[in-house]
Amino acid sequence: MPLRSDIESVLVIGSGPIVIGQACEFDYSGTQACRVLRSEGIRVILLNSNPATIMTDPDLADATYVEPITTEVLSSIIARERPDALLPTLGGQTALNAAMSLVEEGVLDRYGVELIGASAQAINAGEDRDEFKQVVERCGAEVARSVIAHTMDQCHAGVEELGGYPVVVRPSFTMGGLGSGIAFGPKDLERIAGAGLAASRTTEVLLEESILGWKEYELELMRDKADNVVVVCSIENVDPVGVHTGDSVTVAPALTLTDRELQRLRDIGIAIIREVGVDTGGCNIQFAVDPATGRVVVIEMNPRVSRSSALASKATGFPIAKIAARLAVGYTLDEIPNDITGSTPASFEPTLDYVVVKVPRFAFEKFRGADPALTTTMKSVGEAMAIGRCFTEALNKAMRSIDKKGTCFHWEGPAPTPAQTAALLAGVRTPTEHRLLDVQQALRGGATIDQLYEATRIDPWFLDQMLLLEEVAHEVRRSPALTAQVLAHAKRHGFSDAQIAALRGVSEDTVREVRHAFGLRPVYKTVDTCAAEFAARTPYLYSSYDTETEVAPRRREAVLILGSGPNRIGQGIEFDYSCVHATMALAERYETVMVNCNPETVSTDYDISDRLYFEPLTFEDVMEVYEAEKAAGPVAGVVVQLGGQTPLSLAARLEAAGVPILGTSPRAIDAAEDREVFGVVLERAGLPAPAHGTALSDEQALAVAERIGFPVLVRPSYVLGGRGMEIVYERAGLEDYLRRVGAEPGGAYAGGPLLIDRFLDDAIEIDVDALYDGGELFLGGVMEHIEEAGIHSGDSACVLPPMSLSDAEIARIRRSTRAIADGVGVRGLINIQFALMSDTLYVIEANPRASRTVPFVSKATGTQLAKAAALLMAGSSIAELREAGYLPHSDAAVSDPLDPIAVKEAVLPFKRFRTPTGRGVDTVLGPEMRSTGEVMGYDVDFPRAFAKSQAAAYGGLPSEGTLFVSVADRDKRAIILPVARLAELGFTILATTGTAQVLRRNGIPSVPVRKLSEGAGEDGEQTIVGLIESGAVDMVVNTPKGQGARADGYSIRAATTSADKPIITTVQELQAAVQALEAQLRGPFKARSLQERDADRARRRANAIEYQ
Q1: 334: which of 138, 441, 740, 1012 is 20 to 30 A away, CA to CA?
Q2: Residue whose C-alpha is closest to residue 562's, from 632, 626, 488, 630
């Protein structure tokens, strides 16, 4: 069936902010869908609250709404735009839940909008646990025995019915396993099922018999209207059932199934997709197989594009989201060509002649006290993927792609003793981030495969492969000489030069020289979807120590762009955005070559760059790609400034090896990081910085802190996302910090000296993104943080244009920015953080690279900074870019009173992390970044924009109810006016004794409540924590008192997060919240597209030029 003629416009719902369980893979699938629908001549209307994505670029849709994803906003967009259809299957659980709310409220029927991609019935059949159970049984397969519960009493009764503990708890309609877990007793059940009932859209949980330790598989399927079904990919989890698939090491294709077993899973999967009725798109089905009996149980299905779909797309080269979008508008699989071969249709199932391994990346170190055990609730923040000719090669490459200390197999020091091996065997019973490394160390210590299988339930085949790595390592270490044969054997199993160097006790450079002397270099193979049966037209390449290379020669000059690797807190999708923009901007002049290893992102889509290398971002791997490209044709240079700290940290070594670095030189990058050199730049420019010093030992650190005076801000050298950064208020606090950081891998001084700055209390923090070409500066955006200095810029809400800075102050900021950019030697982007305190503008730090605010500034100002930066690096000037229309004539120093206001708000993952006893982790913000994503509120004034940002990030602020206030003494004066206004608006105010007294003296009625430390009252009066947990409080204001997590404040904040209520931890945010609540009372949000706002801005600019 050809394209439907009755669909002229489609509303696509994005997935909103990046959160754990719903990350950039939905930006990738949504971007693909928007591009495909537009290429078919369909008008695309997009709603997504996330400014950091490529998807929300104004070029990708006809009308882009960066607004909260709520029923109210969606209804107003539908009324305004009148789309013919709504496509909700590409925006994760957020989009599915939003679409179901529209169906239930009758909005789609009222406006005659058709749901495409999946019907409401199919969504319900896949998502509703009870309905899905019946579907599976009708298909002749089985699900784990289970009971549905809506209350805690029903949960306890359900456990009895299933024959006792352990039981698995799964809520309906949630994402990334949120609220799910394994209960081993009644206490666990109360904790997990209570959270699950709260997390579920329908207050429903499923209790299942435990299938812990079974093998887990997934199938990715697609079906069209003509009932053609293809199985795109089989994926196997290395970890057995009990670890969320997003947190498990996974392999494609499945490696330990017999042909007959795989066929059985295929038959069940195809029967289910037909029975559920997914007929225009993809779905993902998860299975468990009992290794003892072969019994197959269907765990669940997602009737939409899922996290695994991105992995399956990148693993096979089969673009699931692109094809799903085409199916949704009428095509069938046999009518859609396969992009990669150009000669086969999409109804040909992909065939793999290689192995793909995905390894998750975690961030437990960011959340003190968090339980590191892996469960059915997803906790990883990112992932890396690698491709190899065998499992061991792909596994080793994936482990080193994680780009984190202590995540690769190692053979340092003596082998574990029998006692240590016994301890390792006991430890690997609990799945954790480092379980595979512990398994490898246990093998080193002499543990057997049977012992490890009994402890971990990891399939013996995988354990045997790890034993093979152990044997290869032994051969490398024991060989009398590093012969070509020994070296080639190790390389074929994925060993890096650094691992071989450690085994031989020589340097990495020596191993590389020996390897090159033997002529041992990787060749690059193509991902072609068909095991080389047909020629591939798209150069999507991976390395292997094989015989022939498939890198085609070229005539045009090439530019290599290094991506940012796996997502992590502090280095996320924003950097991928800049890399993709660089590719787009440079494609006219050069062949663009992308090097990256993150399967979730747009940059690793095979048709974004001219060539894609799916490789780890290590010095060895990048150098080999550079050499391969140099052999294929001329190379102009490498771009390292756009992918965050990962490629930046390679810059100096690449340059030393003779690789031309485009844009800002590695020497200039170091000048900004090196305290003393940067101090000279500031001195020459006459710019003040807070008093600071550096230390290489604990004694020096304490002496520097005493000299410059407390409070101080301490941090290690070369970090991103404020890793290890803390504000310390007294000497004891600094001693505690040094003790904690010293215990981490590498210690406090591994990356260079410890940096210590005087902390500026009560300063306004300002973030600046600018472009510099060596002569002229373009000020991209000046953002003012809503919270005071001391909260990491990635976690602070910020506003653009700045709310309280005069034109004269902005002019001063511009002059300072130019002086720094010139002094450091920037060519391209620079991000500077200033602090304004009692009329002095202090320079906090400068980063001569793309920052995480670049996408936000670009969306808010309508100027695509990353594209301009890429062209500057390639030699253009700002004047030329103005001439070509990339940059406007005036920059952010010229204020436009009619410009809308943009507020960026961070989204934090505290809900996902609990201490081992089940309490929440502390939610206080500080100088170390903890947010996973962001949203943008965009409107005519600050109160409305802030209200939208809160609605998009946390579901909004309550407009009535009960407010609890407890603040530090220093904040008591500042809260009087905002709290008085909230009381006027009708809120009931609860407060701790001290705060209540201050409020009463100021004529604000408030009810004193008991602190946790005071315990319940004689007459059973609950403590404030009890009141919050019981749902009696709608919003909490709690500012922390100085250093450390004080027991009361911590308990209040943890209880509020668990109850999913808004929590405000700074006075500035409280003032903004009051303004936002007043704006909400003025009526519903008005939505306008970025394209309309950009057109208004262009008109005003044209008139201003004419007027001049």
Answers
A1: 138
A2: 626
DSSP string, 371-390: -----SS----EEEEEEESS
Three-class secondary structure assignment of 388-438: ECCHHHHHHHHHHHCCCCCCCCCCCCCCCCHHHHHHHHHHCCCCCCCHHHH
Contacts of 202 (CB under 8 A, 6+ apart): 128, 172, 173
pLDDT in tens, 257-267: 999 999 999 99
Q: Kindly give the parts of the chain with pLDDT less than 50.
A: 1043-1045
Residue carrying the six token digits 């990048």: 622
415 and 445 Cβ atoms separated by less than 8 Å: yes
d(CA 741, CA 734): 10
Q: Give the helix, strand, coil percentages of the chain, each rounded to 5.
A: 40, 20, 40
Instruction: Give per-residue pLDDT as tens, 688-738.
Output: 888 888 888 888 888 988 888 888 888 776 555 556 777 787 888 888 888
* Residues 787, 1068: Cα–Cα separation, whole Å: 6
3-state secondary structure 481-534: CCCHHHHHHHHHCCCCHHHHHHHHCCCHHHHHHHHHHCCCCCEEEECCCECCCC
Alpha helices in 4-151 (DSSP H): 25-39, 71-81, 92-104, 107-111, 120-127, 129-138
Provide the CB-side half-sphere exposure for 1080 (13 A, CA). 19
Angle between helices 92-104 and 71-81 (to 10 degrees): 70
Report helix, strand or coil for 709: coil
C-beta separation of 233 from 204 below 8 A: no
What gap in Å lies between CA 690 and CA 713, rounded to an integer?
A: 10
**3-class DSSP assignment, residue 735:** helix
231 DSSP β-pair partners: 221
Quick one: three-class SS letters along 572-635? CHHHHHHHHHHHHHHCCCCEEEEEECCCCCCCCCCCCCCEEEECCCCHHHHHHHHHHHHHHCCE
Separation of alpha carbons 675 and 713, rounded Å: 14
- Beta strand pairing call for 85-87 and 114-115: parallel
Half-sphere exposure of 288 (CA within 13 A, CB side): 23
**H or E stretch at 195:** helix 186-199
The one-letter amino acid code at 1068 reads Q
Cα 833 from Cα 858, distance rounded (Å): 18
